[in-house]
Each structure stands twice: as C-alpha cells, then as structure tokens.
Amino acid sequence: QGLAAPVPRENVEKLVPPKAGSRVMANYKGQGKWFPGKIVDIRPNGWADIEYSDNDYEEDVSRRLYFSLSE
Fold first, then answer.
1. What region, left, alpha or beta, does residue 64 occupy, with left being phi > 0 and alpha being psi -120 to 50 degrees?
2. CA distances from 66 to 31, 45, 54 (A)
3. Which of 6-10, 17-21, 35-39, 66-70 shows the lowest mean pLDDT across its residues?
4. Phi, psi of 12 (to 5 degrees)
5. Residue 62 binned pLDDT confidence (cut-offs 50, 70, 90)
6. CB contact set of 69 (below 8 Å; sequence gap of 6+)
7. Following DSSP, what letter does each residue of 17-50 receive, concatenated?
8. Closest to 46 measured CA to CA, from 69, 9, 17
9. Cα separations (Å) of 10 from 15, 38, 70?
10. For the CA atoms of the chain, what is the radius of gyration?
C-alpha cells in the first residue's frame, strides 16, 4: 500500500538529483499515494518513466510527483 501522507518538509534538504536507476518515491498517477520505485528513463525537463516495486509502470511523471531517495 502507498503512503497517504505528503512528503515532510524536513526531507526536502535530503533530495538528490534524479538519474536513470535512482530509487524514488512517487505519487502514482498524482492520486496522493506514494510508492517506491526506480527511474527507468529521465528527460532533460526532469520528467521520468518510473517502474514501481510492484512492477507497475508509469511514463512522463512530473518532477513534482517524485523524489529521489539517497542511495
């Protein structure tokens, strides 16, 4: 199950730049629940294709709907 809570503000400083292969938490389809996954592809504007840990896949995810986890 996803996390229903928003990303805590104190975690903003812990963000790392996204890149292909980065582990992320993403707001699946922008519906408010956050799930773990990894970036499969990333565009220059920061939008990404994400494969979730349950094997769901989402294309063109806005940068504001995911954050990278520290490795």
1. alpha
2. 12, 13, 16
3. 6-10
4. -60, -40
5. very high
6. 16, 22, 23, 24, 25, 36
7. ---TT-EEEEEGGGSS-EEEEEEEEE-TTS-EEE
8. 17
9. 10, 22, 14
10. 11
CA dist 38 → 3, 10, 69 (Å):
16, 22, 10
pTM of the model: 0.74
- Tell whether the model's pLDDT for residue 58 goes beyond 70: yes
Cα–Cα distance, 12 to 31 (Å, whole number): 20
Helix or strand or coil: residue 59? strand
Q: How far apart are CA 42 and CA 54, in angstroms?
A: 20
